[in-house]
Amino acid sequence: xxxxxxxxxxxxxxxxxxxxxxxxxxxxxxxxxxxxxxxxxxxxxxxxxxxxxxxxxxxxxxxxxxxxxxxxxxxxxxxxxxxxxxxxxxxxxxxxxxxxxxxxxxxxxxxxxxxxxxxxxxxxxxxxxxxxxxxxxxxxxxxxxxxxxxxxxxxxxxxxxxxxxxxxxxxxxxxxxxxxxxxxxxxxxxxxxxxxxxxxxxxxxxxxxxxxxxxxxxxxxxxxxxxxxxxxxxxxxxxxxxxxxxxxxxxxxxxxxxxxxxxxxxxxxxxxxxxxxxxxxxxxxxxxxxxxxxxxxxxxxxxxxxxxxxxxxxxxxxxxxxxxxxxxxxxxxxxxxxxxxxxxxxxxxxxxxxxxxxxxxxxxxxxxxxxxxxxxxxxxxxxxxxxxxxxxxxxxxxxxxxxxxxxxxxxxxxxxxxxxxxxxxxxxxxxxxxxxxxxxxxxxxxxxxxxxxxxxxxxxxxxxxxxxxxxxxxxxxxxxxxxxxxxxxxxxxxxxxxxxxxxxxxxxxxxxxxxxxxxxxxxxxxxxxxxxxxxxxxxxxxxxxxxxxxxxxxxxxxxxxxxxxxxxxxxxxxxxxxxxxxxxxxxxxxxxxxxxxxxxxxxxxxxxxxxxxxxxxxxxxxxxxxxxxxxxxxxxxxxxxxxxxxxx
Length: 648
What we know:
By secondary structure, the chain is of the alpha+beta class. The protein contains 13 helices and 34 strands. The strands form nine sheets. The protein has an eight-stranded mixed sheet with strand order 7-6-10-2-1-16-19-18, with no helix packed on it. A five-stranded mixed sheet has the order 21-22-23-25-24, covered by helices on one side. Strands 8-9-3-13 form a four-stranded antiparallel sheet, with no helix packed on it.
């Protein structure tokens, strides 16, 4: 009785505030579809927020765009990853993902599921079987579906949301609903591509139109994919549930749909700012309000650079959720027109990780995942890797560094550089995301290495050509399912260069680019000893001879990648030379008529992926690690922190 009374009080307090009207209310976004709209969903669902249970039914309209008929259809039931400890997701993750972990495995509230109640086609109930685990259900259709034919499935299901530690679930008074509805796989050619939900992969789906009606308790504020189409003049009450209101939502030419709820005033009336024709809704965590301007600036920077570099963000709206700290597992995730990006309450040093880096990265996924819908199961680097590179470039253009001042800086690709060189050779970038040797190798091959590889490609092609490559790739493959072969094909066409060797070494290979100066020697040139002539041998005492002292330098290829590399040397006689070593052998020695005064490998910076710059240079007077050195390091670091605070 007490709970019902409290619910009534909350409802009356929230009447008229349950959902502020959105400016965008159109039920049609585009005059002409941007995609084939293969998979379309009409969903009705009701949330029991107290018990974290959702009842839903959907009509799935699916068209066979393959080359062969099919009599089976797979449905992703993602939430079954949290049904129990035997799912592939739980076995692979061990209940941990991205610095978060499952709490209290003995508590049923920590677990969740997606239970199919019925599936019908042409009025007939469909049977089926599980795939690799219960996250995929393979349905047997009552008849063959020919290429070009469209079928309609009526699906009823029930969700129980888990305690969030991986994208979807609840924490305290917050609920993130991702991967929440039965979702069809992708039919390509004559086969289905529908992997189980693994720990180290994400998603792959076809584009379509979504019309979603959510019945929610009136006190909840809703953040969602797409635009709201009701509440224009009045709140729409749910006639079946007196304490609920119905939200009607619409999205076009997207391949997923997500939403989140909280009973907060800032969620019932989110902040909205229009930028470059896009209405951006910010769901602000109250404790972080002081840094909201930073989050907004980061999102607008991402909108700006993506438009100038690729093409204009085409959707009318974007939702940005500042997730609560107790829901860290739902932070830093992306869905079409919706991202989660936490901010910070106090950051006097302006370390641009939260919110800047997270916000820019998650927005980048609107392009590389959202509109260029690559297969994240099989080629995660096309999504995470290119997005990480976009993040690095956008932050560099906007802020120059993650942290720094005049004497101290942390570069915008520092995390990727450090991650890659901690484990550079375990897996190639072409490895399926769920088949890497371990979790860390997944992040290296999907996030870190691709960022450095794209830096390397830019150094090889030049910035203007690289910008043309990415622009052509984004525009040509927008609203399609690109593969790495598409990227290679477009890059070769735009640059006019054969990238086979680059692709072999950096994308498909696991060797590293590691050249070093192994040693530098100098010695006196002398002459003398026993001299022969027409007479008896004569001994002359050894003495200095022209050219006097000579020098040599030995280079070593420590990694497996063989590329020609430039050596710059300055001799003690002030002569400078530039030599090119083909790198085919493991080492080479160059000799000079004067001792080496200084030397640098790759002086022009043609190889950003060169491992060890310290041992790729030489100075006969090494830096002393004495008091003055360490004092300068400490003072520089302190000065950098103070400048970050705005002092000095």
